[in-house]
Amino acid sequence: QMADPFLYHTGRRSQYGCLGHEIQIEHIKAYVCTPSFFTDKAVIVVHDVFGWLFPDIRYIVDLIASHGYMTICPDFFKGTEPWKSTDHWADFADWLKDHDPMKVDKEADVVLKYLKEQCGAKKIGIVGFSWGGMAVHHLMLKNPQLTAGVSHYGIIRDSEERYNLLNPTFFIFGEKDHTISYDQITLLEEKLKQYCKVEYKIKVYPGQVHGFAQLKPEDMKPDDKPYIEEARKDMLDWIKMFV
């Protein structure tokens, strides 16, 4: 059932004043935040079903930029409607047909070209959440230009080729994610052991539900906060190790 992976409640979210700005790259709009000094290191952030305008994802972009990376979140939905929390989950499968997380190659290429040719990026990492986690998983199998990836709760199902990653990839999961079973994570681990020739890591965070890792600090519940902060530090450490 395709609807399963994304059935999570966004809950109340606080407002967020973004630090970056919006740009246009060929046919794609993107949100960009850069450090105050020049750097040749960049990170692409892939949004979830709620799209590139969602405050949580912009917070993540700003956070990564604050660690010294040119950081960019392109609109992988190319101007089409993101999923909205008011939409009916019965329609999700149809929506997903037009928003396939495995059909992001063209947009990724446009953004990679921009980062390399216009911004002087030498190393480029990628992080994604949910829908974006699946996109990252896919791109780390396909695009050798991406130096390292972090996939948050995004599993590609039913494909042998999902295991031969091209560059180091870190998979982050929540223990209580009702959309990704423990069996699927175990299978991923077994298959990566068998096929993967690069460094990888899988980590499951206790008690965490789908979507836990992109919350802004003021939206975190006290019990979850330590795990969200740990996942965030782990994500940044992985990027810093390779990018």
Overview of this structure, please?
Belongs to the dienelactone hydrolase family. One of its GO terms (cellular component) is cytosol. InterPro entries: AB_hydrolase_fold (IPR029058), CMBL (IPR042946), Dienelactn_hydro (IPR002925). GO terms for molecular function: hydrolase activity. It is found in: Cytoplasm, Cytosol. There is one protein chain. The chain is of the alpha/beta class and 243 residues long. It has a single domain (24-242), classed as 3-Layer(aba) Sandwich (Rossmann fold), CATH 3.40.50.1820. It has helices at 55-65, 92-97, 105-117, 131-142, 182-195, 225-242, and strands at residues 21-25, 28-33, 41-46, 70-74, 123-129, 148-152, 169-174, 200-205. It has an eight-stranded mixed β-sheet, with helices on both faces. The chain starts with 20 loop residues before the first strand and ends with a helix.
Quick structural gist:
The protein has helices spanning 55-65, 92-97, 105-117, 131-142, 182-195, 225-242; strands spanning 21-25, 28-33, 41-46, 70-74, 123-129, 148-152, 169-174, 200-205. With 243 residues, the chain is of the alpha/beta class.
According to CATH, what is the class? Alpha Beta
Name the CATH architecture: 3-Layer(aba) Sandwich
What is the H level of CATH, i.e. the homologous superfamily? Alpha/Beta hydrolase fold, catalytic domain
The sequence of SSEs as H and E is: EEEHEHHEHEEHEH
Measure the end-to-end span. Answer: 36 Å
The tally of structural domains comes to 1
The shape is: globular
SS summary, helix count: 6
> Numbering strands along the chain, what is their spatial order in the largest sheet?
1-2-4-3-5-6-7-8
Beta-strand content: 15-25%
Q: Could you report the average pLDDT, rounded to the nearest whole number?
A: 92
Main location: cytoplasm
Pfam families: DLH
GO cellular component, one term: cytosol
Family: Belongs to the dienelactone hydrolase family.
